[in-house]
Predict the structure.
Amino acid sequence: MTTYRDDAEDTLDELLRDGARIEELPSDDQDENFEDVDESSEESQDDFSGIPFPGKHLQAKPTQLPLWLQPAIFNLFRDEELLTTTTEQQLKTTKECLPLLLGEEFLKLPLNSHSIPHLNREKHASFLRANVGPLPSGYVLMDASRPWLFYWVMAGLTFLDEDVTEYKQRLIETLRPLQNPTGGFGGGHGQYSHCAGTYACLLALAAVDGLEMVDRKAMWHFLGSVKQDDGGFRMAIGAEEDIRGAYCAMTAITLLNLPLELPPDAPARKAGLTSFTDRLGEWVGKCQTYEGGIAGAPNNEAHGAYAFCALACLSILDAPHISIPKYLNTTTLLSWLTGIQTSPEGGFAGRANKLVDACYSHWVGGCWALIQAALAGPKHEGRTTDLWSREGLIRYLLCCGQQEGKRGGMRDKPSTRPDAYHTCYSLAGLSAAQNHFFYDVKGETQDEVTGRLVSAFQWTAKPATAEERKAWAFDEVDAVRPVHPVFVLPMEVVERTRSQFEKGGF
């Protein structure tokens, strides 16, 4: 039986505490897309002093909530006698979201036929484009995360059906110094290669059709250097081993059609491993926790983003209806995933008893296509019954994830500021809610000639019907492009990348 450390440090909470967050710093000549928030405004206040508890500051609890706010699985309005930071934060979040969801307060945005805001497409695109221009000085803290800015912008724009080919040459020249001679990409100039930075660079380059600049052979050797004896992957040489490394590495191997055989100099060969896939599924399975969710590494806490990484990694390894049930307990995983769709907000939290956050629209919302394909099995035909509330997520993103005014971008929740990260993953989550994704069980899982793993290329997408759009509260003009369930890029971009390296070899 797996044991769990009682004294394990909650590293993610440390990284995300208020003092550690990156803040945008105003400058005299900054773009309107980086306009500073009025610090005296109510939305910028995090002081809970003087707020009566429990829940009196909500004034009046609605006696009848719309159906999208009250699925039976949600636990609405928990009145807990024991007041904690968690309950106080939840009450504050409910207070700021509920008026927007119920239409008691309106953003100054055009409303769709369901009386909720349209997707502010043009302003969101403008906001994303500003993130690859001159940035406020506070962004110096993201020097090691430069590839992520490029990915969030390029991917987000393509989700909005914007043309990003104008950025191709500029992006290639910007990323060239980040590619190390030993393979892979660092997060910034002169930095060691890292699986996360490599993943972000590859997807950004794929979006602009610029993958020809990648040194595939050196990449193969770099990924071989981070493959571990137990089957997992480190994020960098000497760095932590976690589920992100497994997903990022397998994404690079598959998109670039690298040999599955480990390089001769791979350290894992000393333990008898010969392939990148050796012991990988077993290692992913060890990351599942007693809750049913997936942790970053064995014996850690379950987290929504790690659930996506695990499911996507296994869907690269083999067909989802084969690999996912083989290595994971799908019953407990399903229970955990359904439990973190929040109420009354309708979005997703990243962990149990945590707050809604728009970024999990992708990290958790993106899990559903994968887990439903796993549960449907080889008889997967046509549309399946949803195990989550698409309407709840769409309403949260359109009502609470956008802000009024001249500035675009999408945000975590109404009291926070927009950023490229939340904009990209909010749009990806919107795609997950607006479209149907189907796995072709008759397709190949491995190319007989090149040995390439091809199960992740067997997905198709269909948009919502007019009847479904009506049920899910969005208009056709608010639809975003179908986003690939595994690679988080438009479906057409993934197919183009598959064809580019179809022959394999170096």
Observations:
- The first strand starts at residue 435 and ends at 439.
- The mean pLDDT is 86.
- The chain has one domain: 119-499.
- The chain is about 35% helix and 0% strand.
